[in-house]
Design brief:
GO molecular function (chain A): hydrolase activity; proton-transporting ATP synthase activity, rotational mechanism
Keywords (chain A): ATP synthesis, Cell membrane, CF(0), Hydrogen ion transport, Hydrolase, Ion transport, Membrane, Transmembrane, Transmembrane helix, Transport
GO cellular component, one term (chain A): plasma membrane
Number of helices of chain A: 7
Family (chain A): Belongs to the ATPase A chain family.
Order of helices and strands of chain A: EEHHHHHHH
Radius of gyration of chain B: 61 Å
Structural class of chain B: mainly alpha
Strand content of chain A: under 5%
Distance between the termini of chain B: 169 Å
Largest sheet of chain A: 2 strands, antiparallel
Number of domains of chain A: 1
Number of helices of chain B: 2
Number of strands of chain B: 0
Helix content of chain A: over 70%
Oligomer: heterodimer
Largest sheet of chain B: none
Function (chain A): Key component of the proton channel; it plays a direct role in the translocation of protons across the membrane.
Chain lengths: ~230, ~160
C-alpha cells in the first residue's frame, strides 16, 4: 500500500482517529452524491419532461428491477441498500479517473464494505429462518459439515473484499506503471513535454478504470445478492 | 497491506449514512412516485374503458330509441295517410251521392215539368180542336161532353 500515511487525526472522546486519504475521498464522494441527489429529485412531474427526471427514474427503476429480477419480489425492500452499494461503489471505483487513488484500492475500505455485506447476509438469514433455523443451517446437509459451513460463511467477506481490492489495486498499479513508462520514454527521447502521456493512456483508462471499476462494482453487488438469497434459504 | 481499523469503521459508518440518505431522498420518494403514477395511469385506463363501454351502451340505446321513433313516425304518417284516404273516399262517395241525388231530382223535376207541359199542350190542343171543330161545324158544341171526348182521343194518340 503506497500512500498509507494518515493525513491528519481527529480526536473524539480522547481517542485519536487517523484519517487516511481513502476516507477523505469517500467524504468527497458522499458530499457529491448528497448534493446531486436532491437536485435530481426536485419536483418530479407526472409526465416526465426533463432529462433529469428521466435519468433519475431510469436509475431507480433499473436498480429496483435488478433486485426484483435477481432475488424475487419479496426482496424488493433491499433495493435501496443495493442502490447505495451500486452508486457508492461506482463512484469509488471510478474515482481513479480524477487522477487520485480510488478509495477501494485501500483494503480497509474494501473490507468495510464486505463486512456490511457479511452482516446483512447473516442477519437476513436469521430473520428469514429464525435463530434456531439459522444455526441448524450450519449442520446441513450432514452434521460433520459444520466446520466446512462455518468456513464457507466466514470466507465470503474475505473473498468479496480481496476481489474488489485486488482488482482495483491492480488497475491502479497498471496505470501507474504505464504513466511512469511513458514518462521514461519521453525522458529518453529528450522531449521537454511528456507527449506520450497525453493520449496513449486514454484507452487504458477506459479499460482499467471505467470497465474494470464498473465490472467490479457489478460483481460485488451480484455476489452479495446471491449470498443473501442462498444463505437465507439454507 | 495493513488494515486500518478506523478506516474500516468509518467506511461502514459512511455506507450506513449514505444508505439512510439515499433511501430517504432517492429510492423511497422516486419509487413511490413511480408507483403512484402507475396506479394513476392504470386507474385512468380502467375508467376510460368503463366510460367507453358506457358510451357504447348509451349509443346502442339511443340508436334503438331512434329506430323506434323512426318506426313510430312512419306508423303515424301511414295512419294519417290511411285516415286521409278514407276521408277522401268518403267525401268522394258523398259527393257522388249528392250529385246522383241532384241529378235524380233534376230528372224528376224535368219529367214533372214535361208532364205538366204535356197536360198544358193537351189542354190547349183540346180547346184548339174544339175551337176548330166549332168553327168547322159553325155551331155550338156541347162543350162539356166533347171536351171529354177529345181528351180521350188525344190520350189515345199520345199513348
Amino acid at each position: 500500500m503506497g500512500s498509507s500515511e494518515a493525513i491528519f487525526t481527529i480526536k473524539i472522546l480522547g481517542i485519536d482517529i487517523p484519517i487516511y486519504f481513502s476516507v477523505i475521498a469517500q467524504w468527497i464522494i458522499m458530499a457529491l452524491i448528497m448534493i446531486t441527489v436532491p437536485i435530481l429529485t426536485k419536483n418530479l412531474k407526472l409526465v416526465p419532461t426533463t432529462g433529469r427526471q428521466i435519468f433519475v427514474e431510469t436509475v431507480v427503476e433499473k436498480i429496483n428491477s435488478l433486485v426484483k429480477g435477481n432475488m424475487g419480489e419479496e426482496y424488493k425492500g433491499f433495493a435501496p441498500f443495493f442502490g447505495t452499494l451500486i452508486v457508492y461503489l461506482l463512484f469509488m471505483n471510478l474515482f481513479g479517473l480524477t487522477g487520485f487513488r480510488p478509495p477501494t484500492a485501500d483494503y480497509s475500505v474494501a473490507l468495510g464494505l464486505a463486512i456490511i455485506s457479511f452482516v446483512i447476509i447473516q442477519v437476513n438469514a436469521i430473520v428469514h429462518s429464525g435463530i434456531l433455523g439459522y444455526f441448524k443451517g450450519y449442520a446441513k446437509p450432514f452434521w460433520f459439515m459444520i466446520p466446512l459451513n462455518i468456513i464457507e460463511r466466514l470466507v465470503v467477506p474475505v473473498s468479496l473484499s480481496l476481489r474488489l481490492f485486488g482488482n482495483i489495486t491492480a488497475a491502479v498499479i497498471m496505470m501507474e506503471l504505464l504513466y511512469e513508462g511513458l514518462e521514461f520514454l519521453s525522458h529518453v527521447l529528450h522531449f521537454k513535454i511528456p507527449v506520450f502521456a497525453t493520449f496513449i493512456p486514454i484507452p487504458f483508462h477506459i479499460y482499467f478504470d471505467l470497465f474494470d471499476g464498473t465490472i467490479q462494482m457489478f460483481i460485488f453487488v451480484m455476489l452479495t445478492m446471491i449470498f443473501i438469497k442462498t444463505t437465507s434459504e439454507h | 497491506m495493513e488494515i486500518n481499523l478506523w478506516t474500516v469503521v468509518i467506511t461502514i459508518f459512511n455506507v450506513v449514512i449514505l444508505y439512510i440518505f439515499l433511501k430517504k431522498k432517492l429510492f423511497i420518494p422516486v419509487t413511490t412516485f413511480m408507483e403512484n403514477r402507475t396506479n394513476t395511469i392504470e386507474n385512468n385506463i380502467k375508467s376510460s374503458i368503463n366510460k367507453k363501454k358506457e358510451a357504447e351502451e348509451l349509443k346502442k340505446e339511443y340508436e334503438n330509441k331512434l329506430k323506434e321513433l323512426n318506426e313510430q313516425g312512419k306508423r303515424i304518417v301511414e295512419e294519417y295517410k290511411n285516415k286521409a284516404l278514407n276521408i277522401h273516399d268518403e267525401i268522394i262517395a258523398q259527393a257522388k251521392k249528392e250529385a246522383d241525388f241532384i241529378r235524380q231530382k233534376a230528372r224528376e223535376d224535368a219529367e214533372l215539368e214535361m208532364e205538366r207541359a204535356q197536360d198544358e199542350i193537351k189542354k190547349q190542343i183540346v180547346s184548339l180542336a174544339l175551337l176548330v171543330a166549332a168553327k168547322a161545324i159553325e155551331r155550338e158544341l156541347d162543350e162539356e161532353k166533347h171536351h171529354a171526348l177529345i181528351k180521350e182521343f188525344i190520350n189515345r194518340v199520345g199513348a
